[in-house]
Specification:
single chain, alpha+beta, five-stranded antiparallel β-sheet, globular
């Protein structure tokens, strides 16, 4: 979750408040500045921004950073 937390902190420095939820191994973007994200990406339920590692020697991976920023711009 280190990369996701760094991402959240960097967005807060820009004045964008993002909230996330997780359902192992998916990490979802729930809200941007209090607005509920309704799009779905890599999931049937919510907008997936990252996948948590399955093994300890792996790192978490963001899905598609361009799509993530498109959604953030849309809801900002």
């Amino acid at each position: 979750m280190k990369k996701v937390l760094i991402f959240k902190q960097r967005m807060e420095k820009l004045g964008i408040n993002c909230t996330f939820s997780a359902n192992y191994p998916w990490v979802y973007l729930d809200t941007v500045n209090g607005k509920q994200v309704t799009e779905k990406h890599f999931s049937k339920y919510k907008f997936t921004i990252a996948f948590l590692p399955v093994r300890n020697d792996q790192q978490e991976e963001f899905t598609d950073i361009k799509e993530i920023f498109k959604i953030i711009r849309k809801y900002k």
